[in-house]
Amino acid sequence: MDFLLNRYRSLTILVVVVLAQVVLLAFQVKTNSNVPLIRVWAVEGVTPLAGVFESFRSTIAHFIDDWLMLANAQAENRRMKDELGKLKLENHYLKSELATAQRAEALQAFQKRSPSKTVAARVVGTATGVGAKVVFADRGTTSGVRKGMAVITPDGIVGKVIASFPNASQVQLITDPSFAAGVVSGKNRTVGTLKGQGRSDVIVDYVQIEQPVEQGEWFYTSGDDRVFPKGLPVGQASVVRQGRTFKEIFVAPSGFQRGLEEVLIVVDGVHQQIPDDAAAQAQPVSLLPPPPQTSAAPPGGGSAPATGTAAIPDSLLTDADRLKRKYNGIGESVGYKFGEGMSSPNFNAPPKSPAPKTEAASPSANPPAQSPAQPAAKPSVPPPGKQ
Amino acid sequence: MSEYGEFLATAPRRKGALRFRPAVMFLVPLAAICFQVYVPRFVPFAAYLELPLLVTVYFSLMRRQPVAGTFIGAAIGLTQDALSHLPLGMFGIVKTLVGYFAASVSQRFDVENPAIRIILGFFFFVFHKFFYWVLARALLGEPLPLDLAQTMAVGALNAGAGLPLFLLLDKLRDEDPAVIR
Fold it and tell me: Residue A387: pLDDT above 60?
């Protein structure tokens, strides 16, 4: 036996182990029972590890999910940024197109409204030259544009054509230092010469110091320069002050208010009326309705003739009014009706009874102390304030 | 003697058993069992991998001691049984036999050779499958099916998976005994 155990030790152990397990198996099958201890140990040993693995796995899975979501969000963010950029560009382009369309519409409306014949042009470039305010418009001689034509926008004058080419023309802006044009103010009709300064504003020169010009007053083209039709707006006087010889009037050009992209070239100008002060027109004044007409005679008056002077207080009557009242009284006293071809009454005759009433119309000529002495006049003249 | 027989006869063999840290001897089989318990929940394909068997084969081959292989197989098999719905002993008996024979074979072959490892991995998988089928029918009376083609395919899969696994476990060895001729 010892020999077998020593000689076949491994095999013996194998047989023992296998037999032990067979017995264990047979016991379980025979008794139809379990071996809870081993199972509890195994399960209790493995399930915590499984829990750890599950936590680790869920953490990793969530991390990967989050990372993937973040990567996706980043990619989507990048894509949306690109899309936003494109939309911004598109929006900017559409806004530009809309503004262009609106300007074109305004130009077209102005063209229809204006009596002058104009040609719409687009400003396509700026001429070279330090300080020069000269631009290129895309209309030239083929469109009927000639040198010396006025260039305007619906808001005001812009400049004049100084050179014309087949498909383009050079426009000297009113802000150019060598530009000059005749202008007149809208309210006071003060005439001057518009001159550019190379800056954004222009001046109106050669206006005498004593000539009235108000700040904010509009200037219009006078038509004297034979370039701009009369009546086109130039701008509002932003600064008005006394100079040494002339007034210093700075005008903010109104023609550049909406930029300078589309202009109208006046190929056939028609002079217009210079409107009243645009600023006054732009601010409507509220006026009360006129007071109700009264049938009463003026206080102290006699027969209250149906003339325009009837309702005028005596203190406001002129000598002509008083003379007119006197003649009316003479005419009524003799039954004469003016304007019916009757022979003239004797206006030099002393007035009869109505005459004192006429005289009484003037409080200054008819002192209150004398009124009780003229009762004849009272029935026809109701006292003031009793009508 | 054939050419391969000569190769086997003349192949360098290792002297003595390879040693592993006790923690490795405990944690690696436990990890293999946990893998089988846990991973197929999320990766159904992983159910075809019999990692406890591969670990049993590896440790038995490396230990080169049939007694050690016997106990290694019995321990891993019984733990596997404990986590199954079947009576204790089915996997225990089969893996005990696998451990014993693997350790016995390691005394005759160069188990460092990848080809040998693949062949042994395939062989012991088929052996394990077949013996389990026999025991289930003989001891429990359960008519388990045995699909040979599937067994061969899964065996090949496990043999292929065993090669990198064995290389990975080689890194956990404590010492490398001298190679003798």
Answer: no
Lowest-pLDDT choice from A24-28, A144-148, A270-274, A299-303: A299-303
0.90 surpassed by complex ipTM: no
Chain B residues near residue A32 by CB distance under 8 angstroms: none
Give CA–CA dist A316/A373, Å, rounded.
26
Crossing angle of helices B114-135 and B148-170, rounded to 10°: 130
> Of A308, A315, A316, A311, which is closest to residue A298 (Cα–Cα)?
A311
pLDDT band for position A361 (50/70/90)? very low
Contact status, residue A166 vs residue A202, Cβ threshold 8 Å: no
Q: Which residue of B has its CA nearest to A31?
A: B87
Å from A74 to nearest chain B CA? 28
d(CA A4, CA A12): 8
What predicted TM-score, i.e. pTM, was given to this entire model?
Answer: 0.44
The closest CB to that of B70, out of A17, A29, A50, belongs to A17
Please, which residues 28-57 of chain A have a Cβ atom closer than 8 Å to chain B?
A: 28-29, 34-35, 38-39, 41-43, 45-46, 49-50, 53-54, 57
HSE, CB side, 13 Å, CA atoms: give it for residue A249. Answer: 32
The nearest alpha carbon in chain A to B32 belongs to A46
| B171–chain A nearest CA distance, Å | 23
Distance from CA of B90 to the nearest CA of A (A): 7
Provide the token pair at A205.
Answer: 């020169």
Of residues A215 and A110, more confidence is placed in A215
Q: Residue A181's closest CA among A151, A208, A216, A141?
A: A151
The amino acid at residue A378 is: K
In this complex, the residue of A14, A35, A50 whose CB is nearest that of residue B34 is A50
CA distances (Å), origin A83, targets A88, A93, A131:
8, 15, 42
